[in-house]
Amino acid sequence: MQKVSELQVSVSDLKAFEALANIPDDQLQWLIDKSEILTFEDGEYLMEPGQDLTGPHFIIEGNMRFFMMQQGSRRDYTLVEKGSITGYMPYSRGLIAKGYAQAVGELTVLSYPTGEIMEMIRNHFELTQALVHIMTTRVRDFTAMQQQNDKMMALGKLSAGLAHELNNPASAIVRDSLSLRKHLRMVPAHLKNMFAIRASDEQVDGLTDELFRILNKKECYTRLTLKQRTQLEDEISEWLEDNGVEDAYDIAESFVDFSFTTENLEALKAHIPEHAVSIIMGWLSAKLMGEKMIEDIQESARRIAELVSSVKTFTHMDRAQDKQYADIHVGIRNTITMLGYKIRKENITVIEEFDETLPEVKALIGELNQVWTNLVDNALDAMEINERGTLTIRTKKDNDFVEVRIIDDGPGIPEDNISQIYDPFFTTKEMGKGTGMGLEVVQRIVKQHRGSIKVKSRPGHTEFIVCFPING
Fold first, then answer.
1. Confidence of residue 436 (pLDDT cuts 50, 70, 90)
2. Which residue in 407, 404, 402 sits closest to 458, CA to CA?
3. DSSP strand pairing (45-47 vs 100-111)
4. Residue 85's closest CA among 154, 12, 134?
5. How far is Cα 13 from Cα 314, in angstroms, rounded to an integer?
6. What's the rounded Cα separation, in Å, for the pair 394 and 406?
7. What values do phi and psi take at 74, rounded to 5?
8. Which helix (H) or strand (E) holds 59?
9. H/E element holding 305?
10. Could you tell me the CA-to-CA distances from 178 to 191, 222, 303, 355, 431 in Å, in that order?
11. Cβ-contact 103, 44 below 8 angstroms
């Protein structure tokens, strides 16, 4: 329990504080005369959440840590050491403690009575100025830390999803390249069999012309349902077996990949010597199989390139850090791409109701992307409890403003929490899943764009409405 210390504090002791080094001695002596010297044992609290802020407190000996509790777990934020000044400051707008201030070891502070702060402001300009400077520096440092923490949280969310997004095509490239190498080793055997065939020039030309005609048809690339594919595999396997083709069932798959039909195979057969049908069909299957592997590798590489492009556009790493005109839909769609893995994992349906006639907006696009990331990610977390859901993103022009609505059909925000959702560190998420800074950052960025953010929520419908000027 705190107690009044018998320790004496002198002006020279306070002069050792960097912030007080140039304060007139008479003001420091006045501060000492008006204050109490308090001692706290290790683990004792100077303040707890919900209590009125006290101080200023001048730490004479020991350390103090500031932390908050989230979902039953402690989250440390800073350690205040000897020679530091903390607590309530002149002109501070914060009146209520948000977290815990706890002694680390034995702690001794010179504590000024908060109720007498107006006397300090009226009569001791230099002292007041020094404490206000501490407050502004603290706010600036805290804001910078908050921004960095939020960006790191956003980066963590995106990197987890991006790792999954990149892993699939990267694994496919490795898998297909190994299969292609194995496949190419079989080419000499196919060539040996092909050289043994005696075909006329007309038959060779007819076969190649027919093959390219089939491959160039648009319907060759029609996406088949599982039922259609199974049926086509059975039909082609049966045709190949009827025509004496070896390994009919195994090679049928490659023809199905390119949507060949039995009619296509009949057209090819018309240009093949009767004794060579099995050899030619085996060779064609091998060619198609190699072509399919190359296509898969190209598609995987294209997907990786798209993801890298999305990251670059999302972060605007190639842009100056000032307002520029850009299509906000690009940023929103890139956000959805970045969170694609989470969307699929949670079985979320995304509905885009975009007003494509919207003009480009003048904004800090990278900052706005942070807004979309936080709002969309929060919506996905809210719908996680249902194991499915619908995310609707709607844009429209409202006179000289652009309006973006992000809507989810999750359980909604409890009415008691609505007034607190923008408060720093307020979160209902479990430890490690949220810092409680996301919506505070969203609100700050929206205000930075001279805009507004509103929320409407009821069970089954939560809607965040972001509105800001088109021309910055």
1. very low
2. 407
3. antiparallel
4. 134
5. 52
6. 7
7. -90, 135
8. strand 57-70
9. helix 277-315
10. 21, 27, 19, 46, 43
11. yes
Burial code of 398-431, b = ≥16 C-beta within 10 A, e = fewer? eeebbbbbbbbbbebbeeeeeeebbebbbbbeee
pLDDT at 195 over 60: no
- What is the token pair recorded at 31? 């501060």
Structure tokens at 277: 């049908």
Q: Which tokens hold the place of 32?
A: 């000492």
Q: Which residue has the tokens 């002596």?
A: 29
- CA atoms of 285 and 305, how far apart (whole Å): 30
pTM: 0.47
Tokens of 162: 């991006």
* Contact in structure between 75 and 119 (CB atoms under 8 Å): no
Q: Are 445 and 371 in contact (CB under 8 A)?
A: yes
- Spatial distance between the Cα atoms of 343 and 243, rounded to a whole number of angstroms: 48
Least trusted range by pLDDT, from 66-70, 72-76, 404-408: 72-76
- The structure tokens listed for 112 are 């000024």
If DSSP codes are grouped into helix, strand and coil, which group holds residue 219? helix
Catalogue the E-assigned strands of 329-459: 348-353, 361-363, 389-398, 401-408, 452-458
Cα–Cα distance between 21 and 85 in angstroms, integer? 13
Furthest-apart CA atoms within the chain: distance in Å: 114
Residue 446, number of CB atoms within 10 A of its CB? 18
Alpha-carbon distance of 340 to 347, in angstroms, equals 11
d(CA 371, CA 312): 17
Q: Tell me, what's the pLDDT at 302?
A: 77
Angstrom distance (rounded) from CA 303 to CA 171: 12
**Whether pLDDT at 313 is above 80:** no
